[in-house]
From TrEMBL:
Protein's name in the database: Dynamin-type G domain-containing protein
Organism encoding this protein: Ceutorhynchus assimilis
Gene Ontology annotations for the cellular component aspect, listed alphabetically: mitochondrial outer membrane
First-listed, main subcellular location of the protein, grouped into a coarse class: mitochondrion
Residues of the full protein shown: 19 to 434 of 752
Catalyzed reaction equations: GTP + H2O = GDP + phosphate + H(+)
Amino acid sequence: NLPIAATNGIDNSPLQIFVKAKKKINDIFGEIEDYVKDTVDYMHEVQKEDHIVSQEIVRQIEEFVHKVHSIREVLARDHMKVAFFGRTSNGKSSVINAMLRDKILPSGIGHTTNCFLQVEGSTTEDPYLTLEGSNEQRAVESVGQLAHALCEEKLSESEMVRVHWPKNRCLLLRDDVVFVDSPGVDVTPNLDEWIDKHCLDADVFVLVANAESTLMVTEKNFFHKVSTKLSKPNIFILNNRWDASASEPEYLDQVRRQHQERAIDFLVKELGVCTPKEAEERIFFISAKEVLQARLAEQGHTALTPLTDGFQTRYFEFQDFERKFEECISKSAVKTKFEQHSQRGKFIANNLKELLEDLYNEASKLKEEKLYQRKELTDKINYTEQQLMIITQEMKKKIQNMVEDVEQRVSKALTE
Ligand code: GTP
Ligand code: MG
């Protein structure tokens, strides 16, 4: 029951770069695991028969089984993570809902996000919540109930609530994208704690700015902090509420140019995270509210509301953002997550190879020694045989001589 529009082009989604790479690297680790297990079985056999393999070597090889297994466990949990930041009410929760094509997160008046909310795919039929430090699954029936549950909990703003949403309801979640929503950066003095707790493993950051005002010091300050802790973070800037510009079309181009220039300056000159050309692909003018409304209507959940001027252009720009975002997050996650795994995989394979080579050399040496010992033994036997032959021949000769001597003497005695 995936949204019709979302099912188009499943296979050419840039997220597939990550999905396919994950499958491939998992298959490779599957092979390594089989290979290591076979080696352990073989070692146990060899150990029974002979004293070639020491207990220590077998232990070392057995350890690889655990290592490969734990890499596979981490790999299975690997995902692409995007975190949304910005001032209160700029539309962070609305952007996430628009991307997920559903009203998952509470937004709007009275629904201020008051803690970190992570939306991730689940294989269950129904959505549920888990709170930090607990595995207890709490049912979520509706957005209203989710918002209510979040208020009831009296959570601290840096705490994380995980929303497990059925994968079969959303392509992005199916493809292992995890969304992190945050309270407004203007409501907390704890930005450092936020970053340390929730941001260090994010592949992409989205700054949701308000197109009706200019980038604020608090928003900039947050990203300055992020870029001291992470080298070249991937940052997108969404100038949200761009639908407001429809009411003043005469200033539209001018306002857009001004926002664009300031945002480029921020990414390029202030943060130094990208080139001016790259920055142009990171800044978008959108309306999350409109996109969400259109997508809900498309799925028949709500009636289509009258469209504001320029809706189509803003909708296209949102789709353009989604595509660039998918490309960026997919490539970045492959690099940061799988590069480490493949390094460790190579390390394990090399270590195993070295151990087996040492073992092979040891065995060859042993074989040579045995052959040498056998040769020495054969030489000894040959020598003894020869000696025996010589001795026997001499004995024969002596006996012959003796017999001849006796014969002579006897015949001499007889003639005398
Ligand atoms: P906090 O969680 O309180 O920090 O806010 P938020 O950044 O998550 O904003 P939220 O998504 O809750 O949106 C705040 C209000 O702005 C809601 O009433 C939204 O409907 C509205 N809103 C969001 N995006 C847009 C937009 O593009 N245009 C307009 N006109 N309103 C929007
Ligand atoms: Mg919110």
